[in-house]
């Protein structure tokens, strides 16, 4: 945080300590617009899964690594009735990553015919480009998106282009060292919909509060408090004013030396936990549990992550 | 004798029917059935609440207790080792602390990478 510190005050005049002056010309760069809820998302929404998952990452080079992943378990099929229909599936995913300070490439191929690709490239010091694409064997389900980000001294601007005539732009500006405000606008050509959104984020060393409103009817507020170095608590409220749907959730995130444990309880009667435990160097054991009391749906998963 | 019998039967049956059809007994029976109904509902809802509370506690709190216990054990072990080897206590937590920070940093880096590329 940039601030002009006043010259040291003599002990005699200790009662008149001036507050630190804020230099408005030297504010920090804000968080990117899509990561405004980053802390809350990291704490409240880990990747729950059902079944068994084994990930193996092998580095061939300093920059290049391959990853093999096996996932076996029931997957939910969206159904019209209130019951959840699960079908056991199993697949293997092969991936390659190339990580360079200026260029990052990620590719994944799955046995059910899906191909994922992600590119992140720094075109210049301030301008960077991200692209991601997903190809599937089902017709009309493939999509791709390109983002161009420009990072200024105390602002960020982003332009987004996707298939199906999806256009989006967002801008976020640091207003004070703690507060940043931003807005976004998007247009979806295929569905002929356009939308506007605003976001604000206030963070100090101990807490982060973020709010986002969109004209699609979504209001999302989140608050994360860092209770100590190892523990942080997060809460989140999502309200859709078009469909009058409210969801509130509370969670904790314990980052201990040997493990990371995240637990969450929801106003939809859903409680979940996610544990990543370090068994050995490069060997992580993952447990995921999700209980939905309303729908009586129970999902438990375990897995292993091998590799750095 | 028949008349005596019938009259005695008549008296008995009349007395018992008076008792069984009296308003007090009727109200008592209704109260008992209501109480039984309420007790059954209460038991069921207590059972449901206990189930929900129990499973939620099991998912949210038990792993936390286990992990905190392990952390406390690890701390104790370190303290013991520090006092055994004679190294100052300040040095050892830093070393393991940096491991923990590395774990957390790696986690954060991985998550950041995943989020950045969404």
UniProtKB/TrEMBL annotation, chain A:
Keyword flag Protein transport: yes
Locations listed in the record: Mitochondrion outer membrane
Purpose: Central component of the receptor complex responsible for the recognition and translocation of cytosolically synthesized mitochondrial preproteins. Together with TOM22 functions as the transit peptide receptor at the surface of the mitochondrion outer membrane and facilitates the movement of preproteins into the translocation pore. Directly involved in the pore formation.
Gene Ontology, cellular component aspect: mitochondrial outer membrane; pore complex
Pfam families assigned: Porin_3
Keywords recorded for this protein, A-Z: Acetylation, Ion transport, Membrane, Mitochondrion, Mitochondrion outer membrane, Porin, Protein transport, Transmembrane, Transmembrane beta strand, Transport
Protein name: Eukaryotic porin/Tom40
UniProt source species: Cynara cardunculus var. scolymus
Top-level taxon of origin: Eukaryota
Gene Ontology molecular function: any one: porin activity
Keyword check for Disulfide bond: no
InterPro entries documented for this protein: Porin_dom_sf (IPR023614), Porin_Euk/Tom40 (IPR027246), Tom40 (IPR037930)
Any one biological process term the GO annotation gives: protein import into mitochondrial matrix
Entry's family note: Belongs to the Tom40 family.
Membrane topology qualifier: Multi-pass membrane protein
UniProtKB/TrEMBL annotation, chain B:
Keyword Transport carried by entry: yes
UniProt biased composition (Low complexity): 8-17
Coiled coil, from the record: none
InterPro entries reported for this sequence: Tom22 (IPR005683), Tom22_pln (IPR017411)
Transmembrane regions listed in the UniProt entry: 49-66
Any one cellular-component term (Gene Ontology): mitochondrial outer membrane
Swiss-Prot/TrEMBL keywords: Membrane, Mitochondrion, Mitochondrion outer membrane, Protein transport, Receptor, Translocation, Transmembrane, Transmembrane helix, Transport
Region (Disordered), start-end ranges: 1-20, 96-118
Cellular localisation: Mitochondrion outer membrane
A biological process from GO: intracellular protein transport
Top-rank taxon: Eukaryota
Membrane topology summary: Single-pass membrane protein
One Pfam entry name: Tom22
PANTHER family assigned: MITOCHONDRIAL IMPORT RECEPTOR SUBUNIT TOM9-2
Stated family: Belongs to the Tom22 family.
Name listed for the protein in its UniProt record: Mitochondrial outer membrane translocase complex, subunit Tom22, plant
């Amino acid at each position: 945080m940039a601030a002009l510190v006043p010259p040291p005050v003599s002990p005699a005049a200790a009662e008149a300590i001036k507050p630190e002056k804020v230099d408005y010309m030297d504010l920090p760069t804000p968080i990117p617009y899509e990561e405004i809820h980053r802390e809350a998302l990291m704490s409240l929404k880990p990747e729950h899964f059902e079944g068994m998952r084994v990930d193996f990452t092998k580095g061939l080079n300093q920059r290049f690594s391959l990853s093999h992943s096996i996932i076996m378990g029931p997957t939910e099929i969206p159904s019209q009735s209130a019951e959840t229909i699960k079908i056991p599936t199993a697949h293997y995913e092969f991936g390659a990553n190339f990580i360079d300070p200026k260029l990052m490439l990620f590719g994944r191929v799955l046995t059910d015919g899906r191909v994922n690709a992600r590119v992140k490239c720094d075109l210049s010091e301030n301008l960077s480009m991200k692209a991601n694409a997903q190809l599937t064997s089902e017709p009309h389900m493939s999509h791709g998106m390109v983002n161009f980000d420009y990072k200024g001294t105390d602002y960020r601007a982003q332009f987004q282009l996707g298939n199906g005539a999806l256009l989006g732009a967002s801008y976020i500006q640091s207003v004070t060292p703690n507060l940043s405000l931003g807005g976004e606008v998007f247009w979806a050509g295929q569905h002929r919909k356009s939308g506007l959104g605003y976001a604000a984020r206030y963070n100090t060393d101990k807490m982060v509060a973020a709010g986002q409103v969109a004209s699609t009817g979504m209001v999302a507020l989140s608050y994360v408090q860092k209770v100590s170095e190892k523990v942080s608590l997060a809460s989140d409220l999502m309200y859709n004013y078009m469909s009058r749907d409210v969801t509130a959730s509370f969670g904790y995130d314990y980052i201990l030396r040997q493990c990371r444990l995240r637990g969450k309880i929801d106003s939809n009667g859903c409680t979940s936990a996610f544990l990543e435990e370090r068994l050995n160097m490069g060997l992580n054991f993952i447990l995921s549990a999700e209980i939905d009391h309303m729908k009586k749906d129970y999902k438990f998963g375990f897995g292993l992550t091998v590799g750095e | 004798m028949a008349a005596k019998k019938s009259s005695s039967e008549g008296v008995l049956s009349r007395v018992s029917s008076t008792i069984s059809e009296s308003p007090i007994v009727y109200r008592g029976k209704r109260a008992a059935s209501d109480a039984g109904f309420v007790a059954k509902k209460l038991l069921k809802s207590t059972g449901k609440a206990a189930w929900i509370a129990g499973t939620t506690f099991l998912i949210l709190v038990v792993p936390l207790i286990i992990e905190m216990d392990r952390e406390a054990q690890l701390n104790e072990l370190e303290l013991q080792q520090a006092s055994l080897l004679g190294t100052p206590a300040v040095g050892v937590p830093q070393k393991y602390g940096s491991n923990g920070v590395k774990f957390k940093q790696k986690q954060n880096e991985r998550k950041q990478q995943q989020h950045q590329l969404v």
